[in-house]
Write a structure and sequence with these properties.
single chain, 76 residues, alpha+beta, Methyltransferase, Cobalt-precorrin-4 Transmethylase, Domain 2, three-stranded antiparallel sheet, 30% helix
Length: 76
């Protein structure tokens, strides 16, 4: 799982040219009743996950598709 290295991974992506404002979604316990998700930016996602206590198991989605977070969440 990438959650233990989320900050490092975002830093490396940004060092490689990813804009700090790129949307990032983290989905914990996907498809389960206790699913939680969070939308932030590449620059803020690690801190937001710590504040919201989002940890593994989780999937990280980076890029414009992450901005569909609210739209896709309403399809349940």
């Amino acid at each position: 799982m990438g959650m233990s290295r989320l900050g490092q991974n975002m830093e490396r992506l940004m060092d490689g040219g990813l804009a700090p404002t790129t949307p990032v979604a983290v989905i914990r316990n996907g498809s389960r009743p206790e699913q939680r998700s969070l939308l932030a930016t590449a620059a803020t996602i690690e801190r937001r996950c710590r504040v919201e206590d989002i940890a593994s198991p989780a999937v990280v989605v980076v890029g414009s598709v992450a901005s569909l977070h609210d739209v896709l969440g309403s399809l349940r």
